[in-house]
Amino acid sequence: MLVLRILIAVALVVSAVIHFQLAAGFQQAAPSGIGGGNLFRIQGAVAVLTALYVLARGTQRAFLLAAAVALASLVAVIAYRYFQIPAIGPIPSMYEPVWYTTKTITAIAEGLALILALAAYTLHRKGHTADRRPTVS
After folding, report:
1. Tens digits of per-residue pLDDT, 13-71?
2. Residue 80, Cβ density class (10 Å: 0-12 exposed, 13-18 middle, ≥19 buried)
3. Cα(51)–Cα(44) distance, rounded to whole angstroms?
4. What is the mean pLDDT of the chain?
5. Whole-angstrom Cα distance, residue 58 to residue 75?
6. 91 phi and psi angles, rounded to 5 deg
């Protein structure tokens, strides 16, 4: 389980680092309101905090949180690639109909984090279910 926790954390941190690196460029596209750059910074911070939580706790709740963060990030990158979602209040439209290296790496990292977090959740749950079964004497 420790290896899974580390791999989940690494995948989340890879996504976070790339989001932090790209944030300034996306903020320029919509300097008023929240802006894409600030959304990227928020995503990066949430991913880092979730990675630390997974490393520190390794509970079902931590794995579910990691899966949710990874899923939300993956859905966003895919949605903004294939659909032109209009601005919603202060959140800008971030339609970007291309794949480039860092975007692809981020999507792979988020997909990997999602799969690993769900696997860890399942394994953790099965381990706890087996511990609770009554023993027959």
Report:
1. 999 999 999 998 887 766 666 888 889 999 999 999 999 999 999 999 999 999 999 99
2. middle
3. 10
4. 89
5. 24
6. -85, 120
d(CA 68, CA 8): 12
Token pair belonging to 41: 């910074």
Cα atoms in the 13 Å half-sphere on the side-chain side of 20: 11
- Which two three-digit tokens encode residue 24? 């300034």
Q: Are 120 and 64 in contact (CB under 8 A)?
A: no
Angle in degrees, CA 99, 101, 107, rounded to 5: 70
Please list, in sequence order, all residues whose beta carbon lies within 8 angstroms of the beta carbon of residue 123, skipping any fewer than 6 positions away: 1, 4
Please report, as a single letter, which amino acid is at residue 51. Answer: A
**Reported pTM:** 0.87
Amino acid at position 83, single letter? F
Kindly state the helix (H) or strand (E) to which residue 136 belongs, with its residue range: none
**Which residue from 68, 63, 71, 69 is spatially nearest to 1, judged by alpha carbons?**
63
Give 34's DSSP letter: S
